[in-house]
Amino acid sequence: MHILTFDVEDWFHLLEHDETANELQWHAYESRVARNAAIILECLAEADVKATFFCLGWIARTHPDVIRSIHAAGHEIGSHSNSHRLVHQLTPQLFKEDLVASISSLQDITGSKIRYYRSPGFSITHESAWAFSILAECGIEIDSSVFVSRRAHGGFPAFSARKPVVVECAGATLKEFPVVPADVGKFDLNFAGGGYFRLMPYALVRQLMARSEYVMTYFHPRDFDASQPTVPKLSPYRVFKSYVGLQSSLLRFKRLIRDFAFVDIAAADSMIDWTNQPSLKLNAQLAQTGGNECSLHG
To answer: Which fold, 2-289?
Structure first.
């Protein structure tokens, strides 16, 4: 199955960068999220494809029409946190407050229960796996925060499942749809979204997509905005990672959703026989207390 998802944030929502670190700074930048979301929705309508959109609570409050347009087009909406803060830099209490605020803001607009979550930067890591029990406590049924590889800001290379799995933690359960790299010989090769999609030759992306039984994609509105400004004071490496490939990314994306059949998370969920899926158990005591380790057991 190939699953299509988007993380709805603005072009300046770059993680771990002093110039864009908090909400007070964000108001200094001109928003482009409404324009870019409209482009994505138009592409999906033309291809007759449904997707899951993980949205910031901040976007819901400052640009509610963006959330309304996604919902009106029949796409699923989940939480991408409230203030775009990395989970592993938060305490369990701060994480819960951020999560509840995002759910409230999104539900106020959609009138529908928020069932899905994805952390900023895939920042539910081995050390912050306590977040799973809080997600379940707050009504989240399906998470897609696990990136089964090392990456900037997060990543969970110790996560032993490379397909959808039931996570059990502190007496709570939820379904996890991880982002999984392609296995290329002795190497893991990430390809399914963001900068990886923009930087790789399309022929390679297509080959990896075709050979992968399960693919969780992730894109951002800024990934298709070739005329966006450059965030001030970025390092040359981050300029390269954030801006190279923007000129061709929209055409590549349109080709991708023509070349492959994509579904949203709800459709993928319905296709899975969960009684035969593996479960991963996390150390309940550490999950409850926010300890710095969680043991995984197949």
So the answer is: TIM Barrel (3.20.20)
